[in-house]
Amino acid sequence: MGKTIIISNRLPVQLQISNGKINAVPSVGGLATGMKSVHSGGESLWIGWSGLTDEETPHELDQNIDDALKEHGCAKVSLNAQEVEGFYFGFSNRTIWPLFHYFMEYSEFELDFWNTYKAVNQKFADAIIEKSNDDDTIWVHDYQLMLVPQMVREKRPKTSIGFFLHIPFPSYEIFRTLPWRREVLEGLLGSDLIGFHTYDYERHFLSSVRRILGLEVSFNDIFMDNRVIKVDSFPMGIDYRKFKNAALDHDKNQKSDLQERLDSHKASAPDTKLILSIDRLDYSKGIAKRINAFEYFLNKYPEYKEKVRLIILAVPSRSNVPQYQLLKREVDELVGRINGEISTVNWTPIWYFYRSLGFESLIDLYTTSDIAWLTPLRDGMNLVAKEYIATRTDKTGVLILSEMAGSAYEMNEALLINPNNFEQQADTLKRAINMPEEEQMARNTFLQNRLERYNVEVWANEFMKALKQKSSVVRNTFVAKKVSDGVLQKMNKKYNQAKKRLLFLDYDGTLAGFHKDPQKASPDDELYVLLDKINNQENTTLFLISGRDKQTFGRWFLHKRYNMIVEHGVWISKNGQDFKMLEKVKGEWMEKIRPVLESFVDRTPGSFVEEKNYSLAWHYRNTDPDFGEKRASELGTVLRSLIGNDDISVLNGNKVMEVKSSNVNKGRAAVRILGEEDYDFVFAIGDDWTDEYMFQELPDTSITVKVGFQKTQAKYYVENTKRVRELLKQFAQA
Ligand code: ADP
Ligand code: G6P
């Protein structure tokens, strides 16, 4: 069995060099703290950046660095200062971070950042490829490495690759402003499984995939070439036992300086409440707003002056990024002003720490504070909220949490607030201060039970389980066999040996790709050459078989003398002759249906009606995908109620609904042709629902091929139109 390789920019430890010695200090941030517990329990290798640039690392220490990381089960990707600047401070934290947290005005779209991001992602991918085997499972983490899955996939097509995004995925309206939105999505889609903290982030991602890449999405499966990519939400948990046990041991251990100070504060003012806030100093955390809201609270309820104290622990973060420097200044000034204005001889309203504290100090703060007040404006998850609850071993304590944090979805028993609503926050603080202990305990019992059950280990196992199941789903769902090089060779052999061949080739989505305007999807020179070659072969009958109208196909192909069946089987033309009717059909119904379709065009921007001789098609490829599907299902209902028992039916094609006579379909037409001669090689290829009639009705000995990776009655499938051409090129060489 292969190993698991975890890959993220931040490793669980950061290396520092002082006086020629290497120190490993624990990393701050949800990803590193959460995954650390998963990593320490298993046989995984964790690849990431050590936190030191090449320039900061003397050569003679290279080996020592590798050894220090190895002790923690880690291996490094080396980055020089320029790479850290463009990739980490640049694209990751000046472009993606603000954009994904809805701070559009902070997002910088710099080509240099993007180029460095690509190059560094390639470095990470190369490190994985070097250190892994085909049977390993690769788990890529977070927004710094969104191109890695595709880069690894190219070299290791069979490896299981999972990706987890630890920050929000923004709505399509925000995401689409990114100049490199396609590349980012394609990078992520190299994965087999993509995980998010919440369903909302998942939903936003799927919407972008549909709208930007135009891929088919069914529930949470994305269909891309020959792969199905699964998307799901897995809310990350914490190492519950670790926090609970630390809190239990806390009382037994010798007191830290911080704890002494906290205790003396409590002793001197036993009826004051301590309100705690802990975050990295990041604008997404809403620290400045929280301080303003605190001032608002003290103004609204002055009776709480000298009765509450706000402890702010802000951990230094990304301090090379200008927005973080500005925020630092803003928070310093705010704290200074408020403390200056309202402190009394006995009371400082805000205690402000700007530093990273050790784990024990964190526990001191969690266990001593009566209230945790966390007000991110946007936060992928927010583990601090969960950690606070886990340390409340006597079940007291009140959590006030922003609705904008991913964790709010699972922590309904907390007091949820909108960080922009000062009025509500002031009232909630008052409520928290006065909340009876029984109520605190009842709320925390629910919260603790859930956190204990769905801890970080369960979270990681669920993700891994889904990743493993995912690979088997791909194998079972599709009975059609891929046209691999081996299969192609066999088909080709049969083709060469055949005495009489018959080929049915669908056009749109098979011989040619889709175009916004169907009239523009005309054949290219390469296609003509290819079809000419096949059509001129001895004992070979080629039919183009399409839902298109006879005028268009006449213009494109009549001079080439290809045989054609159009409008799904209404018309036939052989060897350059004029189109004749293949089926007797009526068209009177069209007068009745046309206005209905037109009313749908009026109400669905981007859609249009194509009028053929004996059918009407409503195309909705260019509409908003969700809206288009909704309208299509509405139209289906309207049409079915209108046509009743008439001889007409509605066909659901690829982004098109076609109303036509019931006795016409490609299967029926193909079978009629088949009866005309004695063929020993019958081949049909198509991408659409309408082609399924051929696949169903042609005899079992036929070779039927679906284009695309969807459920089909065909025996084989190919990934895309490019592969169709490769296949036909083989036939053309016979
Ligand atoms: P983010 O990942 O955005 O920083 P989270 O709240 O999800 O936010 O995660 C923060 C993590 O960092 C928590 O696991 C917390 O314990 C840890 N942490 C926060 N502050 C400190 C600190 N001062 N010292 C050590 N660890 C900290
Ligand atoms: C968030 C991100 C992580 C990141 C952490 C700390 O939790 O999701 O990927 O590691 O913040 O930020 P830093 O920039 O110090 O790695």
Which terms would index this structure?
734 residues; alpha/beta; Rossmann fold; 4 domains; nine-stranded mixed sheet; 25 helices; 44% helix; 20% strand; elongated; binds adenosine-5'-diphosphate; binds 6-O-phosphono-alpha-D-glucopyranose
How is this fold's topology laid out?
Elements: E1 4-10, E2 13-18, E3 21-26, H1 30-41, E4 45-49, H2 62-71, E5 74-76, H3 81-100, H4 111-131, E6 137-141, H5 148-155, E7 160-164, H6 172-175, H7 181-188, E8 193-196, H8 199-213, E9 216-218, E10 221-224, E11 227-233, H9 240-250, H10 257-268, E12 273-280, H11 287-300, E13 308-315, H12 322-342, E14 350-354, H13 359-368, E15 371-374, H14 383-390, E16 398-402, E17 415-417, H15 422-433, H16 437-453, H17 456-477, E18 481-482, H18 485-497, E19 501-505, H19 525-535, E20 540-545, H20 550-557, E21 563-566, E22 571-573, E23 580-581, H21 589-603, E24 608-611, E25 615-619, H22 625-643, E26 648-652, E27 656-661, H23 666-674, E28 681-686, H24 689-697, E29 703-707, E30 716-718, H25 721-732
Parallel strand pairs: 1-4, 1-6, 4-5, 6-7, 7-8, 8-11, 12-13, 12-15, 13-14, 15-16, 16-17, 18-30, 19-20, 19-28, 20-21, 28-29, 29-30
Antiparallel strand pairs: 2-3, 9-10, 10-11, 21-22, 22-23, 24-25, 25-27, 26-27
GO molecular function, one term: trehalose-phosphatase activity
Protein name: Bifunctional alpha,alpha-trehalose-phosphate synthase (UDP-forming)/trehalose-phosphatase
Pfam families: Glyco_transf_20 (PF00982), Trehalose_PPase (PF02358)
